[in-house]
Amino acid sequence: MALFEARELHLRFGDRVVLENVSLAFKAGKLSGIMGPNGAGKTTCFNVLTGRYKPNRGRVLLEGHDITGRPPQEIARLGVARSFQLMTLFDEFSVFENIAVALPATRARGYDPIGQAYADPALTWDVQQILESAGLAGRADDPAKALPYGARRALEIGVALACKPKLLFLDEPTAGLGSDGRARLADLVRKLKGTLTIVIIEHDMEFLFSLADEISVIHWGQVIARGTPAELKANPWVGASNLGRLN
Amino acid sequence: MAPGRLVPTFTPAMLVSWLLFATVPMWIERVGLYQYLGVEILIFAIYALAYNLVLGHAGLPSFGHGAFFGIGAYAFGLAQFNLAASLWVGLAVAVLAAGLGGTLVALFISHRRGIYYALMTIAFGQVFWFIAIKAHSITGGEDGLLKIERLPVALGIVTFDLRDNTALYYFVLAVFVGVSLLLWRLVHSPFGRIVKAIKQNETRARFVGYDVWRYKAAVLIISAALSGLAGGLFSMAQTSAFPDVMSLHYSGYVVMMTLVGGGLVSFWGPVVGAVAFFLARDMIGALTTGWMLWFGLFFVALVLFKPEGIAGIFAGLATRKHKTTSAPVSNPQPQER
Amino acid sequence: MGTLLNLLPHLVNGITLGLLFALIALGFMLILGLMEQINLAHGSLFALGAYFAYAICAPRLPLPPDVLGMWAAVPLGWRFAAAVVLAPILVAPFGLVLERLMRRTYGRDPLYGLLLTFGVAMVLEELIRMVWGTRDYILPVPREMSGGFIMLDLIWSTYRFWAAALAIVAMAGVWAIVERTRFGAMVKAGAHDSEIVQALGIDLTRLRVWVFVLGTMLAAFAGVVLAPLWGIRPHMGVDAVVPAFLIIVLGGVGSFWGAAIGGLLVGMVVGLSGAYASEWSMLSMYLLLIAVVTLRARGLFGKKSVLEV
User: Fold this and answer.
1) Is B32's Cβ below 8 Å from some Cβ in A?
2) Which residues from B are below 8 Å from C308, CB to CB?
3) For the residues C22-45, what does the mean pLDDT come to?
4) Where are the domains of chain B?
5) Where are the domains positioned within chain A?
6) What is the ipTM of this complex?
7) Long-range pairs for B287-291 at CB < 8 Å and ≥24 separation?
8) Chains contacting B (3 or more CB pairs within 8 Å)
9) C155: how many CB neighbours lie within 10 A of its CB?
10) Which residues from C are below 8 Å from B248, CB to CB?
11) How far is B68 from chain A (nearest CA, A)?
């Protein structure tokens, strides 16, 4: 059984069909990729899977349980975390606090109005671990808004990791990065691979082909192909839609 | 700051300012002012601190907070007339009633933010104000609720009389100390940090698992309840309650105090703002009839050039020497359902 | 049938009131629609319009006595007409200055625009107090427009109908500008996508200035029209601007017809509830708003707006 499954999702905005009959399945422990040109509906698809939009039809299942249409915070609490293509950090916070506030341990004490927020040494240790795995070890006390772009990208993933997810959605993690940054990010994702289930939207084909176990291609709101990187390279549809070069 | 992240319960600045406030009755008359002014300033400092929980810490622009202050004022008087002639009962009822009002408003507006939040709070503020004026049999309408007594502080064996303004000042100071400690703890608690996170990025907060609606509602309710406490103290101080504190003007004044003092960047900013507001009223007011003209112009200038307020100006002077070179990164926030 | 006839005056009352509310909201709506800025000083500009109209109609102007005497000798009808035209023009510079100040807040948190205009409202109100004092004034109305008439055995105020007619004229004018001119097309495009406006080579800065000035003049015009009905006093601005907010929220931000219909709806509800509980009739306005906005988050005709984020 797949860890996470989407069955025949339909989504309309007014009279525009954005997703049509999209079915996806992500296996536990694997790294799945979603490719497609701009405007193909990849991010919208993520938004449906993580609760931002409610689909008009279709079902979303996590470990076999129906989570269709649940609000984002509930889905997040079930162990689904995500990053954003347009960065959404807590800009006035330090790097430390960006991670700390996203930890389930902080959330569990969320309605404590008197206690110290981050006094627990276990929590501090936890944050350090996450910062190290995201390659931000020395930057705990930098304000998030002062970080260089690449480090912000890493923090974007770090905040998602802080949720201690079973399943991690990454929306265009390399957006805006140069080749160095991409390489560093690929390293980070490679380290995470195997420790948890990951789904990545990406239109950098090379990046995905080098990392993914399985890739789905979305075009015009539909899944037009899926398979391992090797299978897809041979797929005439993928060649025809000229992926990767389009963007 | 090292990653051992304890925030002290008492800070030197806090203790110094409390001590300073404690000496006020000894010299305020010598500088040509009067004891009651100190009472007013402290009450509005409590009010502005409570208000800043919403504006500064949660980023929710409420323009109808006068309603909660007013509810507290009326509730204090009504409790005294109808329930029990006890200071504690009066203040408790003021807090509860304003908290209840806050709950009602929160139910309707906690899914909103930004300008829509402001508009809705204006609308609700007007509703409460209107009711206060029209419910003549309860509130006395525009004539106000008169003959509210300054009840004595009963602490078991000892009682303090508050009819003297100096005594009242020290009682209000005690409440101020309590409220400021409480709020200081609150903004550094998990709850407070999460609220701050929601202010910066509601979307992200939701996607890391927070029920944003509940936090926004809770913040408004707490702020309303404490504003009601200030309102209760105010009706006791002036021994009457009037609807004008619930008007759009008065709701705007607390916004002005909070911003002028630097509530957007500093915990103590609202206190600075309350002091500045009343000193301006009395000192500019002594020179010219149109003091609000000058205060308003000052406010406009701050909004345009230094929204961090007076606290921001001082912080700017202090850190001018070691300027950081980091450029802020713009962070466009996507639209949200 | 009898009850219907009893309700008729309240209904007519409500419709005229609704038109007047819509008139007040018009300028506010224009600025909100294009610039996504709440102009809390709208009410003060409205009040300024009324005070200027008073200065023109009941001449106590700082002019040489013989000029003043000549002006006072002009029939009131002409002076009133002059006020209707001149007061908005005299208030327009205030809008220009406000827009200049507002420029610094563009692209920042909309909270700053709100705070700025609140501060300006306080300043303008205080200025009014310093110049005219705190007393009430009554704007004299020419004999042709004042008084009352009897219809269906009821006495109707003549000026109320004149005011409603002027409101219709103003609304028709704004409708024509927004729907039928190039300027209007730009305004509408700007409301939805300022990038498109700029891509089309439209000078957004100038467009904003004109919209702001137009909004200001409409506020002042509304002030002149309403002054004979509601009286002139320093806080008349706040009294007027609150219904304007409510109407905009009710009708939906950025929708011209929403504002017009919202105004009518509010007027009718206030008018009709006035038939049963006149003391509380204004409250029904707030309750209507809360009901509508609870059921329809964006108001009756609202589109999704940046303001919601």
Assistant:
1) no
2) 112-114, 116
3) 85
4) 31-246
5) 1-79+165-247, 89-164
6) 0.90
7) B289/C129, B289/C130, B290/C126, B290/C127, B290/C129, B290/C130
8) A, C
9) 10
10) 238, 242
11) 21
With CA atoms as reference, the chain B residue closest to A76 would be: B209
* Any C CB within 8 A of B257 CB: no
Do the Cβ atoms of C130 and B119 come within 8 Å? no
Across C172-192, average pLDDT: 78
| Contacts with B111 from chain C: Cβ below 8 Å | 297
Of B61, B126, B290, the CB nearest to C286: B126
Of C109, C245, C279, the CB nearest to B123: C245
Residue C239 is predicted with a pLDDT of 79
Would the CA dihedral through C232, C238, C241, C247 be positive or negative? Answer: negative
pTM of the model: 0.90
Contacts of B118 in chain C (CB under 8 A): 38, 111, 114
The verdict on C7 touching B (C-beta cutoff 8 Å) is: no
pLDDT, tens digit (0-9, with 9 covering 90-100), for C123-142: 999 999 988 888 888 888 88
Q: Which superfamily is assigned to A1-79+165-247 in CATH?
A: P-loop containing nucleotide triphosphate hydrolases (3.40.50.300)
Least confident residue range of A122-126, C133-137, C210-214: C133-137
**What is the DSSP code string of B286-318?**
HH-S-HHHHHHHHHHHHHHH-TTHHHHHHHHHH
Domain C2-295 bears CATH identifier 1.10.3470: yes
Per residue in B48-83, pLDDT (tens digit) is 999 999 999 999 999 999 999 999 999 999 999 999
Among candidates C113, A29, C185, which has minimal Cα distance to B118?
C113
Residue type, C231: G
pLDDT band at B7 (very low <50, low <70, confident <90, very high): confident
Number of Cβ pairs closer than 8 Å across A and B?
Answer: 143
Q: Answer whether B196 sits within 8 Å of A128, measured CB to CB.
A: no
Side-chain-side CA neighbours of B81 within 13 Å: the count stands at 16
Neighbours of B208 (CB within 10 A): 29
Tens digit of each residue's pLDDT (9 = 90 or more) over C46-67: 999 999 999 888 766 666 677 6
Q: Which residues pair with A199 in a beta bridge?
A: A32, A169
What residues contact residue C90 under an 8 Å CB cut-off, 6+ apart? Answer: C52, C220
Token pair for residue B14? 């806090």
Buried b (16+ CB within 10 A) or exposed e, A234-245: ebeebeebebbe
